[in-house]
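Reopening this ticket.

The earlier resolution said the output was attached, but the attachment link was broken on my side. Pasting everything inline this time so it's all in one place.
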Amino acid sequence: MNFNPALIVPELFQFILILALFAASVASGEKRVRAERWVPIAAAAGVVAALASHSATGLLFSGVYKLDGMSQFFKVVIAVCFLVTTLNASRQPTLDKDRRADYYLFLALSAWGLMLLSSTVELFSVYLALELSSYSLYTVIALRSKDKGAAEAGIKYILFGAVATALALFGLSYVLAGQHTTYIAELTTKSWHWADAPVAVVGLTLFLGGMFYKLALFPFHFWCPDVYQGTSNETATFVATLPKLGAVVVLVRLSAFLTPGLEITTVLAWLGAISMTLGNLCALAQRDVKRMLGFSSVAHAGYVMVGLVSGTAEGMAAAAFYALAYVAMNLLAFWVVSRVASDGRNLELDDLNGLYRRAPALAFAMAVGAFALVGLPPTVGFMGKLFLITAAWNHGYNWLVVVLAVNSAFAIYYYLSLVRHAYTEDAAPEGRSAPDTSVFSLVGAGVLSVIVLVLGFVPGPVFDVAVAAGRGLFH
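Inline output:
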């Protein structure tokens, strides 16, 4: 085995950051308090490391770990998202100061697990990387000082995670028994028709449950709105974004051999249709903004399925691009939530009343995020849905494309209610803390808004990278 450390620079850098955070967490006094000052700088250096390795290719560790266009694409996105979430968490008001180094340590561990997950091409390794990224979140979700709801959210996340883990491991044993291999490259050469390999089909369906749990796809979505509502705004930002990327990259790799017409592909299509419909209908009744975004996450998980069931490189690329779009849109939305709720409270729709007067820049950023989540031009949300629709049309699931279009119409009401409260309601609730309108807050909102808009205006370069990565899965 030829091991070249230069191929895994992002993973090594993230591991060094973890070691540094571990040293800071066991230190005493001032060193623990100041972690939020240097971690974002280190995360920015991690973005540079990921960009420098974007063209790395090869197989490591006996073919278990693959570096290709898809893995490097997701590592760059994960590194950028980790930077944004660390910046967002640097002003977290509901976290005790002596726990900040520990908090960043667990976030870094989870991001590292997701980076590993991006390159693993063997199912046991996928399972281990998935658990590494999950265990850290079991801890940080409950870190919201003097809030029983956070403890409840942590317990729910652990319990649902345990069930998903058990199903995935049980399914993995069935795949191994039915196909006699766990390497994705070898699984692509096997038959996945129910008549030929019923045990393997059942096993893969159960194994995918672990990915569905991270993605919050029906029927593994029940934890999502409760956890978003219970945990702190900054932790919800992380949970709502990075774990989705890890789930999508694994689903993209597995979907390369799940061609249209297979029983398991049809199951994915139906789960996607139910997920987007249920998520949107439940979101209509919410008043808590984070809970609304939780059900929105369930709906967006269904949208991703539209690209995955197409069985084409363009469909894989559309799913990857939409995952990027979803993360950008949610980072913007949660950034505004965190800055408006400057005291760390949960944000209600009424809290947005008159936001255009109190913080016009944040109101504009919220409008951009809401328009993007709906899928209106010229945002990245519109281009993401357009790529999904064009990639999936005439590949056996046109009905699913129609369901996506109908659900996008449903979503207009509750997303634009965010804008309506921010711009048309004047009576802001009394006794609430004022929004954070510091330079830090406004620059962050402005940069994220620009990203959402620029990716909508000029999606070509990023989508071309995703298409090239998707085509590489079919060789």
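Reporter confirms the inline version is readable. The chain has one domain: 5-472. The CA atoms of residues 258 and 265 lie 6 Å apart.
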